[in-house]
Hints:
Elements: E1 5-9, E2 15-17, E3 22-24, H1 26-35, E4 39-43, H2 51-64, H3 72-81, H4 87-112, H5 116-141, H6 152-160
Parallel strand pairs: 1-4
Antiparallel strand pairs: 1-2, 2-3
Helix pairs in contact: 1-2, 4-5
Amino acid sequence: MNSERIIKKYPNRRLYDTEVSRYITLADVRDLVMSGQPFRVLDSANDSDITRAILLQIMLEEESGGQPLFSATMLAQIIRFYGGTLQGAFTRYLESSLDLFAKQQQEMARALSDNPFEAVARLAQKNVEMWADLQDEFMRAAGFPVARRKKRNDEDCENRT
């Protein structure tokens, strides 16, 4: 089922999954995230979307137990972007970077089932090119001049002649 799941949060702080008609926990919401199930969490009092707040609460629980994903330095750097002129560009950069990382993980899993060494070399080259393009986009959005780079294919063609 690909439809967006609606979860209601009640004043007693309980979460109610309208699809399965039962109360659920934050761990259940985390399971929805992990499975890729689209959902929204709505405040039952006014139907405002509080999905981000619930996701942040899950992240806080994850960060407080076990191995944290974010260091204090990294969190401080992220906080510094709030309200700044580059906040929007930084948001797009982080989203693009995470999307790229997830896609590469999927590609790597598929490629390793074929020829692992060739796959790693091909993905490494592609990774370098995509990260360079992403960084160029971020620098342009920040207003910095970006030197034009030749694409790998152009260089390969020149080297063959």
